[in-house]
């Protein structure tokens, strides 16, 4: 029967060790073999985009990294931050698309990188065109218009679509499939409103290629505002989709979702000022450049978290990261505020008593902070332990690892699972053979208790 079981459960040409390795390599999602054409296309697309970015960076740095004529993105810090965000989303999206070509998450994540990639080259083209005393060439104006209209709306809308499709590339239900239309429509409206503007949003020194006499400025503003509201609604819908998945998920999927929730929250907090400042309020370039740097670096964490959640969520404890963040962020704010208030108060006291400031204030304030660090940290840690980690603390997290194994086992393909069963059957057969040998062997009973009247029997032929 055991031979029959082995033939039934083990695929041909797959050893037991290979079956176990294949089973464990499946991760939390089914194995999807990459088609050679898809892998080649992703690699070629990534290589072309990276080469364009590297060439633009080399030209820009070779000129001394000057300020470029781009609103909100003219400073070196803003341009570097945009380039880092573009490279991170493009590279990690390409990594997921190569590994799981049937999962749209990787493909959609490449879109923000491709949308932000032309920002630096187009800014260099506009810079070169403005150095001569003649109108910008038609190609430069068209490229600048496309980048100014498309880059930011498409990048932000694509990240929202990733949230709706995470982690398996499908909406959790039919109603959430309809929700995919919201970020797509919002991106189209925001892009259209930017394209209809009389001057380019990111390059205000250039006029739009469309005839301004036939376009009412109020139409462009109203279209941009509708697109802005649509993106806000899509973020709320994405949050609802993740909550819906989290309720019905096992521990493995919940760990994945927690990774994305942390990175998605950070991205939303950092990108929201960019949306408001770029498409509604329009502050000065000095404030806008700071907003762009913060938004780009915050958005760069999102593809990293998604890649970890899909491929390596079991290697990093997201609960520890969340709990440490909930402890040390307020701890830093409390200590910094206390230090500033204490220095100001003690300086006033010294001025009132001695008529002059004193360096002893800094020393006293530092000593007070050093004495308060441990009690405040312990108080915050206890608060997080009671309200966020649950009654079991870390033990609860360890106990939750067993369901994750069951969830990952249910997600592998049938062939690898049957191969694992065959390997376990072989191990049981080896144990059974050893027991039979001990039972019928010539030296059975040496050192083992025997019932009275029992006799050893030779193994029958």
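Sequence proposed for the structure above (461 residues):
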């Amino acid at each position: 029967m055991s031979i029959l079981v082995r033939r039934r459960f083990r695929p041909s040409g797959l050893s037991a060790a290979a079956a176990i390795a294949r089973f464990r390599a499946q991760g939390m999602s089914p194995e999807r073999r990459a088609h050679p054409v898809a892998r080649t296309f992703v690699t070629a697309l990534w290589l072309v985009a990276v080469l364009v970015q590297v060439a633009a960076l080399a030209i820009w740095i070779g000129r001394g990294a000057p300020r470029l004529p781009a609103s909100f993105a003219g400073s070196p810090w803003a341009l570097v931050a945009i380039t880092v965000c573009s490279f991170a989303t493009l590279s990690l999206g390409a990594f997921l698309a190569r590994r799981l070509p049937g999962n749209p998450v990787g493909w959609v994540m490449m879109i923000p990188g491709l949308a932000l990639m032309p920002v630096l080259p187009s800014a260099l083209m506009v810079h070169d065109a403005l150095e001569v005393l003649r109108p910008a060439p038609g190609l430069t104006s068209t490229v600048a218009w496309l980048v100014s209209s498309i880059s930011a709306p498409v990048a932000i809308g694509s990240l929202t679509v990733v949230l709706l499709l995470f982690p398996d590339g499908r909406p959790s239900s039919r109603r959430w499939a309809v929700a995919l239309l919201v970020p797509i429509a919002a991106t189209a409206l925001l892009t259209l409103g930017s394209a209809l503007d009389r001057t380019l949003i990111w390059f205000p020194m250039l006029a739009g290629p469309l005839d301004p006499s036939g376009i009412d400025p109020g139409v462009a503003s109203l279209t941009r505002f509708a697109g802005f509201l649509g993106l806000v609604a899509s973020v709320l819908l994405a949050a609802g989709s993740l909550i819906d998945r989290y309720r019905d998920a096992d521990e493995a999927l919940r760990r994945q979702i927690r990774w994305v929730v942390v990175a998605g929250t950070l991205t939303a907090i950092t990108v929201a000022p960019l949306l408001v400042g770029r498409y509604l309020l329009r502050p000065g370039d000095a404030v806008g450049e700071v907003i762009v740097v913060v938004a780009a670096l915050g958005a760069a964490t999102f593809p990293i978290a998604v890649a970890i959640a899909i491929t390596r969520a079991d290697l990093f404890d997201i609960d520890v990261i969340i709990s440490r963040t909930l402890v040390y962020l307020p701890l830093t704010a409390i200590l910094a505020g206390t230090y500033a208030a204490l220095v100001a108060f003690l300086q006033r006291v010294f001025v009132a008593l001695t008529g002059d400031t004193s360096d002893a204030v800094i020393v006293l304030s530092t000593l007070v902070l050093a004495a308060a660090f441990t009690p405040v940290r312990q108080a915050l840690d206890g608060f997080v332990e009671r309200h966020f980690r649950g009654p079991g603390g870390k033990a609860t997290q360890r106990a939750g690892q067993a369901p994750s194994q069951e969830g990952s086992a249910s997600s592998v393909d049938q062939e690898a699972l049957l191969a694992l069963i065959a390997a376990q059957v072989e191990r049981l057969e080896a144990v059974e053979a050893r027991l039979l040998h001990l039972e019928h062997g010539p030296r059975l009973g040496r050192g083992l208790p025997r019932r009275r009247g029992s006799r050893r029997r030779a193994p029958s032929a």
